Amino acid sequence: MSKSVLDVRDVQKSFGAVTAARDISVTVPEGAVYSLIGSNGAGKTTFVNMVTGYIKPDSGTIRFGDRNIVGLAPRQITRMGIHRSFQIAQLCNELTVEENMLVADAIHAKTGASFLRRAHQPEARDRAMATLERFNIAEHRHRLVPELSGGVKKLLDIAMAMAGDTQIMMLDEPTSGVAADEKFPIMDLVMDALRSAGVTVIFVEHDMDIVTRYSERVLAFYDGRIIADDAPDEVLSDPEVQRYVTGAPA
Ligand SMILES: Nc1ncnc2c1ncn2[C@@H]1O[C@H](COP(=O)(O)OP(=O)(O)OP(=O)(O)O)[C@@H](O)[C@H]1O
């Protein structure tokens, strides 16, 4: 069995009277693909925010490799290798695809060189092109963001989140904003690119076809708790999950 890359133990988080995380414990093996499901307000984003340092748990531990990362700033956690993409793509409209990628690369670079110098280094351009090629969007490199389809924007956003040394990628609804007929092709590309880079993937998703097709394991959230943690078929046929999450038999 692969070693664990992320180990969350007994994590709790409340916002006033609302408990958004209750006794959350989960171990994610290196290279696994996990999806997080649950209705609105179930606690999925709170989980992602705690792992990425945007929210500090009230108690519990989050171990990344052999280090407890609770209390570290998002920037420190990103530099350690836990990256994320948001539901709404974080792109700069005034720049081309390649320029956006160069900005992401310069932000993630660990060298002491100035931001602009880093963006102009030939190695940076090579790295940017390699990532764009991995996500099959190199042909769009000279186009400005507003000219791109929802699918290409999504691919660019995830490609940018991959800049630097990524060990865990957390994706918030990777197919939101993507046309229905583009969803599977986009997910095929994203998952192939992440798997070939050996990255562990944790993604929030409401579309059960995507969950079934792309995740190896599913965490079902309800009222701040994980009510199921198993293979997709097991989770989606669980009566509690059908009652509180999917609302229908799988
Ligand atoms: N910063 C915050 N301040 C106050 N309450 C919050 C905050 N973040 C989350 N909550 C509350 O915590 C609970 C869990 O929210 P969370 O965003 O984690 O749910 P979710 O499963 O991601 O929902 P959605 O699918 O709508 O994004 C909700 O009741 C939410 O209102």
UniProtKB/TrEMBL annotation:
Gene3D superfamilies: P-loop containing nucleotide triphosphate hydrolases. One of its GO terms (molecular function) is ATP binding. Keywords: ATP-binding, Nucleotide-binding, Transport. Residues 6-248 form the ABC transporter domain. It holds the Pfam family ABC_tran. Coiled coil: none annotated. This is ABC transporter ATP-binding protein.
